[in-house]
Amino acid sequence: MQFPDLRVQSFGGTTSYILNKNFSARSIYTQGEWQKKSSGSWVPFLDYDLTVFRNKIDEVKTKEFQYKIGGNIGYFYNWVIGKM
Question: Known InterPro entries for this protein (predicted)?
Fold first, then answer.
């Protein structure tokens, strides 16, 4: 089955918060900071997504929205092997 006029747009993201202020997530993702002591942190996440569906069937236009939101939690740890 084909839907030649179907258009789908999706927008979403993730927001997180690091609970331990002595933990550097930047040292993991961008290598923009140095983690000088081994440290870990619980990190709660909020995931969100909006999807818009547009279609035209027999000259009738339809538009539908789908919202998704979810929570998550993880633990991150930086293990520092040597001293700087």
Answer: DUF4421 (IPR025535)
